[in-house]
Amino acid sequence: MTVDLRSLRRWLHSPSPVSPVPPSTATGRTALRWEIFLVLAVTFGTSGVRAALRLLEAATTPTRLNEQTTTLNAPVSTLAWLDPVFQLISSGVLLAWGGLAVLLLLRHVPVRLAGLTDPDRPGLPRPRLRDVLPGAGLAALIGLPGLLFYVAAVKLNLSRQVVASGLDSSAGDLALLVVNAWANGVAEEVIVVAWLVSRLRQLQVPWAWVFAASAVLRGSYHLYQGYSAGLGNVLMGLVFVYFFYRTGRVWPLIIAHGLIDTVAFVGYQVLGGVPGL
């Protein structure tokens, strides 16, 4: 299979709904650069560095990578009434990250977020019914191949065994898993796609580098799970940025991410693990 480089260049430079106006002054551009640095420093940029160090730590221990485990939704308190509070606080922090990115996009060097806000429907950002079907389609496109990729990676010693939930199977704990799944979806897709892509385009970064930056960032903060998690999420990131590039909408990405994590978290807890592992 050959790649037509001219066709690839035309595709990367083809019109996109994502065309935010760049700042008009050098001061504005400097402010955007500082915004990118600071937001990533307190959100997924730092998470990516920590995840890479966790993978380095795991790779240098005598135990094989596929014999190690990592838990995504672990209990953080031995008190039955207090742990849900901590879980909700963690979800709230993720939602606050996403909210901060939206606020910055709307107030600081503003852009029109076609994927989150609609000038014809004033008020808080909310999805439309038309976002559900593409969101579900993306979830199916990513979810099942992702599970098969994970199973193969564990067999090949490229991934830790991921425990999607360390909570109980009670109705309350399952509800907490659903809340966390959708909080992940909001934070990741708003920051890693809508905010980062818009800001980089305002700085007139070429689309090829925008794709790479968003996808690599997404892959980086999943590295604690293993090499394959980093690669798999880079590929997922490329698909999601392409969708945003073509449509300018981020709600379907939030819906897709929320569905993928809900099935992973709740399904793992109900089924008691991943079949075949």
From TrEMBL:
Would you kindly state one Gene Ontology biological process term found in this protein's UniProt entry?
CAAX-box protein maturation
Q: Name one GO molecular function term.
A: endopeptidase activity
Q: Which Pfam families match?
A: Rce1-like
Q: Which residues cross the membrane?
A: 36-56, 85-106, 132-154, 227-245, 250-271
Q: Which keywords label this protein?
A: Membrane, Transmembrane, Transmembrane helix
Looking at the record, the residues that make up the CAAX prenyl protease 2/Lysostaphin resistance protein A-like domain are 173-262
Keyword NADP among UniProt keywords: no
InterPro entries membership: Rce1/LyrA-like_dom (IPR003675)
Q: Answer yes or no on keyword Transport.
A: no
Instruction: Kindly provide the name given to this protein in its UniProt entry.
Output: CAAX prenyl protease 2/Lysostaphin resistance protein A-like domain-containing protein
Task: State the species of origin.
Answer: Corynebacterium provencense
